[in-house]
Specification:
Elements (H helix, E strand, L loop, with lengths): L1 H17 L3 E2 L11 H4 L10 E9 L10 E11 L3 E12 L2 E16 L2 E17 L5 H4 L13 E16 L3 E8 L5 E2 L7 E3 L2 E11 L5 E11 L3 E11 L3 E8 L3 E9 L4 E10 L11 E10 L17
Parallel strand pairs: 1-10
Antiparallel strand pairs: 2-3, 2-17, 3-4, 4-5, 5-6, 6-7, 7-8, 8-11, 9-10, 11-12, 12-13, 13-14, 14-15, 15-16, 16-17
Length: 314
């Protein structure tokens, strides 16, 4: 118990140092289902009204302060040439609580080989800090030293903006996007400014139909660049267009088994579990859980732009 507290205290001290610099985006193992979070060009891509919820519990095994993220997204096509969406996200990490709300809008154009969507996301992020810092001395019963340069309770809000484009075909999808275009800053009492670092995303996927028509292989990959490059690739086996299971590898970080099901009436459920590797495989880090629930229903009678819709991909 004492050792866990010391390790967690060290992590929180590192987080406090990061407040003077940049804040990285959360990552998702089931990134195919969270495209509206990082790429506004995906708004309306399913040619259906879709409501998605995802929850991620990171570094299970630590008692307090580990990252926990919940997102709700909504998107739908409007007529033949627009997509509209919204994203609500809450993230807790240490004594920091972020709540953001974004509105996504995308212009969509149909080509012979697919539909291209280009969009912008505008919104606000509110960051709250409320905590009682612990030091190794305080864990032994000594008084906590109050450092005036570390915020103990504060709240700030800032404007945020993302840009992105996606291309969807019958058996493939691809996207490129950038988050935090304005590099928004937050200034807390007694500290240097912290900011949301720009992140650059490239993602895509391909659906391979096997000779047996009841079987499909689904490939997808994502590369993210902020201060370093993070790369992840997913491979899934889909049976009867309903049940799927797969494996993901995130470079030098985790191996991720995953499974899911597409139920009737547009309901999909997915689950993944990150098994940490290498330098991130701490003694008390037993992995990360992620769960996704999505419900899509058709709201358009247009048969042209609807022909690329595929719940297998998204």
């Amino acid at each position: 118990m004492m050792r866990k507290g010391l390790i967690l205290s060290g992590l929180l001290i590192l987080l406090s140092a990061c407040w003077s610099f940049a804040q990285n985006d959360s990552h998702y193992s089931l990134f195919e289902y969270s495209q509206n979070v990082y790429n506004p060009g995906a708004a309306g891509a399913n040619n259906a009204m879709c409501i998605t919820s995802m929850h991620r519990q990171q570094w299970v095994g630590y008692e307090e302060g580990r990252p926990q993220t919940t997102i709700f997204t909504f998107d739908m096509p409007i007529k033949d040439f627009m997509g509209l969406g919204a994203v609500v996200m809450q993230e807790n990490i240490g004594f920091q609580n972020d709540v953001s709300f974004m509105i996504n809008g995308a212009y969509r154009h149909e080509f012979s080989f697919g539909i291209l969507g280009a969009g912008v996301s505008l919104g606000l992020l509110n960051r709250n800090i409320d905590g009682n810092w612990q030091t190794p001395e305080s864990l032994e019963g000594d008084p906590v030293y109050i450092d005036p340069s570390i915020p103990h309770k504060d709240s700030k809000a800032t404007f945020d903006m993302h840009l992105g484009a996606t291309l969807y075909g019958k058996d493939f999808w691809a996207g490129i996007s950038a988050s935090h275009i304005t590099k928004p800053y937050l200034k807390f009492s007694g500290t240097k400014s912290t900011y949301l670092a720009r992140h650059y995303y490239i993602a895509g996927g391909y659906n391979l139909t096997m000779p047996n028509p009841s079987s499909d292989l689904l490939f997808s990959a994502m590369a993210v660049y902020a201060s370093t490059v993070e790369f992840q690739i997913n491979v899934k086996y889909l049976y009867e267009k309903k049940f799927w299971a797969g494996l993901s590898y995130r470079y030098s970080d985790a191996v991720v088994p995953m499974l899911g099901i597409h139920l009737a009436m547009g309901l999909s459920i997915g689950y993944s579990y990150d098994i940490p590797l290498g330098k991130n495989s701490y003694k008390y880090n037993t992995g990360s859980h992620e769960i996704m629930v999505r419900y899509c229903f058709n709201v358009s009678r247009n048969n042209n732009m609807g022909r690329y819709r595929s719940v297998r991909r998204l």
